[in-house]
Specification:
The protein is mainly β. The chain has one domain: Roll (Pnp Oxidase, Chain A). The chain is 5% helix and 43% strand. The protein is built from 1 helix and 9 strands, in the order βββββαββββ. Strands 1, 2, 5, 6, 7, 8 and 9 form a 7-stranded antiparallel beta sheet that branches. The chain has a two-stranded antiparallel sheet with strand order 3-4. β6 and β7 form a beta hairpin. The longest helix has 7 residues. The radius of gyration is 22 Å and the shape is extended.
Amino acid sequence: MANSNSAQSAPWPIPKFRFEADFGPDLKGILFQEVSGLDTETQIIEYRKANSPIFSAVKMPGLAKYGNVTMKKGVFVNDNSFLNWHNEIKMNTIKKRTVLISLLDESGSVTMQWQLNNAWPTKITGTDLKSDGSEIAVETIEIAHEGLTITNGK
């Protein structure tokens, strides 16, 4: 019989609607509308020995592959920070950064964190403009990176 005095909480999935991103000392705590592409994949190497009696290849793990991360946020007056970071590519002085994407709980504490290593912007898309719309202006940044590390908070 279970102890009725123990404080056990039912396991619930983490809500995904409160998150922020940190792009380094000059761009901390940026709030986004949407983040997608936090995936990793291991490529498959197929190999068959020449004298193998089995007529199929052995599958082995190969190189890790990381997809680009796409982030969408509202456009603010005089905020050209992502465009300035992207424009560094033209001068061949791009500074790769460590980007931290944090999933927060109700109190603002980090519950999960995705770290993108050696990240740099590969594409920036400005907002679409419509005279009959009432939506906010949203810009999109696509980030390439060389590694994804996931950690849990608390």
